[in-house]
Amino acid sequence: MLEVYSASTMDERRFVLREICDKYGVEHGTLKQAIGAYNKDLLASSDLSETEVGLMCALEKELRELLTLWFCLSNLQLLRLTWQSPADIVEKVVQSDVVHPIRNLIDIRRRLGPHRRCFLFMHEAMPREPLVIVHVALMNKIASSIQDITEFDRLDGCESNNDTAIYYSISSTQRGLRGIDLGNLLIKRVVSELQHTDSPIKVHCTLSPLPLFRSWLLKNLKDPSASDELFDERLMKLCVQFNKFGDSITTERIRLFLLDQILTNDFEKYDEIKEIILHLAARYLCEVKQPSSGRAFDRVANFHLRNGAEMYRLNWRGNTSIRGLKSSLGLMVNYRYRLDQVGDFGFFRFFLFHFYNFAPALSSIFFTIF
């Protein structure tokens, strides 16, 4: 069966997939389970032969292209969540936020209350099922900590005075749709939505975590050979100014000292080496790359930078929760989207992505017409 499918033309393959869809329809419960259970290692752990795995991977790629087409912007429904929204959708939004978990009804009321917005994408093929969700705070400044947003019942002032949108949490709910850039599409759609309000927003900025910073730093500090890359000229100067090591300052003494400080999980200890941590975080964001792609190692930075944002500011004690402490030493970073620079770039990148994926199909259409 796989060999026959692989030997078919593009039109024949698409015909088969459409026939399957039309004749058997969509079992929404089964579809939801399949998406939730999807795992890229599934093929590698199966009993299929190497040839069959190759054919299945090719089929998976084509299905992903079709999903990308089906979940394009024109097929997605933007919904603003409010306290009057259906309870089942509100519950799914509550369960989906892994960035800043929603603890109780008070939390969700805050997020849906004054100066807050919650938007999500839904698709007609998956009714009442949020696909990707973004939480926004409307303010008159670029926020430097998540506490300013999540721990107060109301933000100060009248909503009409707000000129800044802070995107502080974005969550994808469907593992099976990874690789389809719904988050990017949602942010751009929400930006457009906020531009058409009574008091248009002028500044669009995120307040984002550095989810792997602490683990990356500890890994390098625990390995003497790897930690050598950490000690650049700027770091050595900061350590000299720290005046903790006397005249016998060595990279080994610094490494052990920093390792002990980081392992304390104590903000007071971190405050003592604030400038050192900020310097290492800046290097982590700007210099550490993924070996395979050359993109930013930090997945959040990679997401925003490739969508056209710029790093705006590192925030000390941006997240003082236990989760923030153990993932990023309490740091958060602002990524700013400048509309005069992002808009055209985003469209151009979106066009290239879809043209690249669907060029074979488009070329067959053109040849048919002409």
Describe the structure.
The protein has helices at residues 2-7, 10-24, 28-37, 50-70, 87-96, 105-111, 147-150, 182-195, 213-222, 224-227, 233-242, 251-263, 267-272, 274-287, 299-306, 322-328, 339-369, and strands spanning 76-80, 116-123, 132-139, 164-172, 203-206, 208-209, 310-315, 332-337. Helices cover 51% and strands 13% of the residues. It starts with a helix and ends with a helix. It has three domains: 1-71, no CATH class; 74-209, Malonyl-CoA decarboxylase, catalytic domain (Aminopeptidase, 3-Layer(aba) Sandwich), CATH 3.40.630.150; 212-330 and 346-367, Aminopeptidase, CATH 3.40.630.150. With 370 residues, it is an alpha+beta fold. Strand 4, helix 8 (182-195) and strand 5 (203-206) form a beta-alpha-beta unit. Helix 9 (213-222) packs across helix 12 (251-263) and helix 11 runs antiparallel to helix 14 (274-287). The protein has 17 helices and eight strands. Strands 1, 2, 3, 4, 5, 6, 7 and 8 form an eight-stranded mixed beta sheet that branches.
Name its key features:
370 residues; alpha+beta; Aminopeptidase; 8-stranded mixed beta sheet; 17 helices; 8 strands; 51% helix; disordered C terminus; Malonyl_CoA_deC_C_sf; MCD domain-containing protein; Malonyl_CoA_deC_C
